[in-house]
Amino acid sequence: MMDYSKVLLFVSLTYQYKADNIFYSFNDSEVIMKIAIGCDHAGVAMKNEIAPVLKELGVEGEDYGTTTEESVDYPDFGEKVAELVSGGKVDRGILICGTGIGMSIVANKFPNVRAALCSESFSAQMSRLHNDANLLVLPGRVINGTTAADIVRIWFTTPFEGGRHQKRLDKIKAIEARLICK
Ligand code: RB5
């Protein structure tokens, strides 16, 4: 699969040029990554808060609910998104619940899913550099929208480092294969 992280550095730039003494400005943002996004009632507000950031990054998010603050069960929504990431139907996923813990537990049950619960930017960056995380989990009741936006920006623009980290991911793959065969 293409490494979108490098491409992302070049999107959402606003270009300006001058012609006939008029400055023209346009946004070159285009969809370069498709993701699935889901949450429970405790994550709805944060999901709405990060939507413009995703757009700015050129990330197209298909929303798998929930959409209101009426109480729901997080496994129902975590399962939908994790299944799509697991099967390679989307490039990546985002899940949000109150603490992020429930969604993380659900998502990491799925083969090929490497879900990272992030409350600050450093972990978000490392989850891409070292773990090639393909599903970002945010804790809607723990951090504010500004921190979530920072996390989303760094998570989508940081590439996987590969090298010695690939060997470790291969070991995770081997564990998955062994458990699935049981
Ligand atoms: C819902 O009240 C809450 O339990 C849920 O959002 C999440 O934090 C679970 O891990």
3D structure, described in words:
This protein has 182 residues and is of the alpha/beta class. Helices cover 43% and strands 21% of the residues. It is built from seven helices and seven strands; from the N terminus they run H-E-E-E-H-E-H-E-H-E-H-E-H-H. Strand 3 (33-39), helix 2 (44-57) and strand 4 (59-63) form a beta-alpha-beta unit. D-ribose binds at residues 40, 42, 74, 97-99, 101-102.
Descriptive tags:
182 residues, alpha/beta, two-stranded antiparallel sheet, 43% helix, binds D-ribose
Topology (SSEs and partners):
Blueprint: H1 4-8, E1 14-19, E2 22-27, E3 33-39, H2 44-57, E4 59-63, H3 74-86, E5 92-97, H4 101-107, E6 115-117, H5 121-129, E7 135-139, H6 145-157, H7 164-180
Parallel strand pairs: 3-4, 3-5, 5-7, 6-7
Antiparallel strand pairs: 1-2
Helix pairs in contact: 2-6, 3-4, 5-6
Bound molecules: D-ribose.
Count of individual beta strands: 7
Order of secondary-structure elements: HEEEHEHEHEHEHH
Structural class: alpha/beta
* Order of neighbouring strands in the sheet with most strands: 4-3-5-7-6
Percent of residues in helices comes to 40-55%
Radius of gyration over C-alpha positions, nearest whole angstrom: 17 Å
Shape: globular
How many individual helices? Answer: 7
The end-to-end span amounts to: 29 Å
Mean pLDDT: 87
